């Protein structure tokens, strides 16, 4: 039987077996000695809509990350050197990427699902989080930051960058609430208040302004129109913004009211 196998064929087979064994050994070593794991899609875990950080034990943290057009929540995380972080990632709208630069963690943020991976941050430094899945017009600006700091007693989430500005005390409470939501829900990423066109139409002077839509109709922007645009962003598309897919946000009727009042106030 064995004389049917040519000598050089035997050599090739032996090399193939050796290479396969080496690969298996490398995989086993990575898993056992370096703690490298395969990212997981968790089943039976309810997708969450808000980001959070919690400390489990001294060095062990749990980070819940929400991706959406076009930012991460939380946008910034500060942790001590040596932090072992269980990271759970979900999305509110479309599929985003979630890659922590300088680590081997690269997950997909999928709406309706939760993906999981663990990272141990052994060295201090700045670890940018990038979205590496094309997710729309402002994909290139979608990033977050993890800061690993020495001599830090406990990790925390710094206050949101886009701090809600102080407002005059005579501002109606609904407007103030809407202003807060404008920052928190991320409207600020696409709608400016100063007339500049970012990704979507500016809010400046939008109330009462004539808006032209892709279907040829036009409307003088009133409360009903603004409300509809928040709840059903795809119903009327303003001319010139065809390529932008505004996501709908989970908002309560009360929050919609606040947003409408705030948008009306931006003159
Ligand atoms: Cu999110 Cu690209």
Strand and helix map with partners:
Blueprint: H1 7-33, E1 40-42, E2 52-55, E3 60-68, E4 71-73, E5 76-80, E6 84-91, E7 96-100, E8 106-109, E9 114-120, E10 125-130, E11 143-149, H2 173-184, E12 210-212, E13 218-220, H3 223-231, H4 253-265
Parallel strand pairs: 3-6, 5-11
Antiparallel strand pairs: 1-9, 2-3, 3-4, 6-9, 7-8, 7-10, 10-11, 12-13
Bound molecules: dinuclear copper ion.
Overview of the molecule:
The protein is built from four helices and 13 strands. The chain has 267 residues and is of the alpha+beta class. It folds into three domains: 1-36; 40-149, Immunoglobulin-like; 173-265, Cytochrome c-like domain (Cytochrome Bc1 Complex, Chain D, domain 2, Orthogonal Bundle). The strands form three sheets. Strands 1, 2, 3, 4, 6 and 9 form a six-stranded mixed sheet that branches. The chain has a five-stranded mixed sheet with strand order 5-11-10-7-8, with no helix packed on it. It has a two-stranded antiparallel sheet with strand order 12-13. Helix 2 (173-184) crosses helix 4 (253-265) and helix 3 (223-231) packs across helix 4. The longest helix is centred in the N-terminal third of the chain and has 27 residues, at 7-33. The structure holds dinuclear copper ion.
């Amino acid at each position: 039987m064995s004389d049917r196998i040519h000598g050089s064929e035997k050599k090739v087979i032996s090399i193939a077996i050796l290479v396969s064994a080496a690969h298996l050994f490398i995989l086993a070593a990575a898993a056992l000695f370096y703690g490298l794991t395969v990212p997981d899609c968790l089943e039976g875990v309810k997708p969450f809509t808000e980001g959070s950080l919690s400390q489990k034990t001294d060095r062990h943290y749990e980070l819940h990350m929400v991706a959406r057009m076009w930012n991460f929540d939380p946008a910034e995380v500060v942790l001590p050197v040596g932090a072992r972080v269980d990271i759970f990632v979900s999305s509110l709208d479309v599929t985003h990427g979630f890659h922590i630069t300088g680590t081997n963690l690269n997950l997909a943020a999928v709406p309706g699902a939760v993906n999981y991976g663990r990272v141990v941050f052994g060295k201090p430094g700045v670890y940018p989080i990038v979205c590496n899945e094309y997710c729309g017009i402002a994909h290139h600006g979608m990033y977050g930051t993890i800061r690993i700091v020495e001599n830090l007693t406990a990790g925390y989430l710094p206050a949101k960058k886009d701090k809600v500005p102080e407002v005059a005390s005579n501002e109606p409470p609904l407007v103030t609430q809407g202003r807060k939501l404008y920052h928190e829900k991320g409207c600020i990423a696409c709608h400016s208040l100063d007339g500049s066109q970012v990704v979507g139409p500016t809010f400046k002077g939008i109330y009462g302004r004539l808006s032209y839509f892709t279907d040829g109709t036009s409307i003088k922007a009133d409360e009903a129109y603004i409300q509809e645009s928040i709840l059903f962003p795809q119903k009327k598309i303003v001319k010139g913004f065809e390529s932008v897919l505004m996501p709908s946000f989970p908002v309560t009727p009360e929050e919609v009211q606040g947003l409408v009042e705030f948008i009306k106030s931006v003159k």
